[in-house]
Amino acid sequence: MNNQLDLLIIGAGPAGLSAAYAAAREGLNYLVIEKGTIADTIRHYPVGRALFSTPNELEMIEGSLKPVREKPTREELLSHYVHFVLDHDLKINTGEEVVDAQRQVDGFLVRTNCHEYQAARLLFAIGAMAHPRHLNIPGEDLPKVHHRFVEPYPYVRKNVLVVGGGNSAAEAALFLSEEGARITMAIWREDWENRDPKAGAMKHWVRSPLEREIREGRLRVILYKRIDEITRSEVTLTSDEDESLTLPNDVVFVLVGSDADLTLLRKLGVEITSGKLTQLPVYNQETFETNVRGVYVAGHFTNARHIKAAIDVPRYVVPLIAKDLKAIVSS
Ligand SMILES: Cc1cc2nc3c(=O)[nH]c(=O)nc-3n(C[C@H](O)[C@H](O)[C@H](O)COP(=O)(O)OP(=O)(O)OC[C@H]3O[C@@H](n4cnc5c(N)ncnc54)[C@H](O)[C@@H]3O)c2cc1C
């Protein structure tokens, strides 16, 4: 199948959904291709998790997200995004992955695992969850090692190690501890001592209950230098005071961040730069167009990271794309 589109949007997270709505309003012939489900990243949050953002930072239309409490849960937010798609009949193909994109004289040829499309403009809204970071140590490939945390209930009274120093690791450790796992958290000293929210310190509403769990003896924190080896029943690690420790262990969660897959952008010729922790595409800060004419970026793998920015950016970028396309047609 070969479809001629004005705009092909890759990814149906908050950025891609916002872009789709803006494209529909602009009268563009658009399509969103999503390899997973609508808001797949949010679907992979831990069950029942409350967002740290307020409704006005997450909703697609002002006043439309009405959680029971002050902040919505994963389930309330997912339902909000699904109903946004249904209510506005947005054009999204789920379960379809973009596997290749090539430049052509007047646009792009995009291949997915099932179809080919031609599009005048491309918007990458691919998020930054493609590659969970690994420790690259012996035993990390054992089935008991996970790089995403979904729920605590299978781990009651199990010996669990959570590795990582950000909010995801801290939340997982807390949730597991509260639901009866025997939990150890391995964290770098600089992460544990970091109290600066702007420098990625864990949120205080995660840290306070975590400290309570530690005080009350349900959670152990080890300031570590490296994890040396994971075996079927143990984990060996080196503390930041160079002490070698061996812990009995049933399950490990390695929650040390994830990276976007920039392969397609690179292949199209988009420049990539090294950020503080990760790599970022180079793009115009006003238009979010990359150095490749007609290729745009939005969302978590740009500097506009959180959901609010992921939603806001396409609201003004897509009208710019529409204006650009109209100018070409009338010239
Ligand atoms: C546990 C956790 C908790 C978080 N809590 C918050 C919070 O409380 N508040 C907040 O603001 N942010 C939070 N975030 C961050 C938030 O989830 C992201 O900022 C947000 O999802 C970014 O939206 P996005 O549309 O840019 O990317 P995503 O939501 O990641 O969407 C990208 C989509 O692109 C799809 N995709 C990627 N490659 C392809 C391809 N080749 N073909 C087709 N589809 C593709 C993916 O499947 C995905 O659905 C949290 C993140 C995590 C992991």
Protein model, in words:
This protein is α/β, with parallel strands linked by helices and 331 residues long. It folds into two domains: 202 residues, FAD/NAD(P)-binding domain, CATH 3.50.50; 121 residues, 3-Layer(bba) Sandwich (FAD/NAD(P)-binding domain), CATH 3.50.50.60. 28% of the residues lie in helices and 28% in strands. The chain has nine helices and 18 strands. The strands form four sheets. Strands 1, 2, 3, 4, 5, 6 and 18 form a seven-stranded mixed β-sheet that branches. It has a seven-stranded mixed β-sheet with strand order 8-14-9-10-11-12-13. The chain starts with a strand and ends with a helix. The mean pLDDT is 95. Flavin-adenine dinucleotide binds next to helix 1, strand 2, helix 2 and helix 9.
Tally of structural domains = 2
State the low-pLDDT regions, or none: none
Structural class: alpha/beta
Distance between the termini: 30 Å
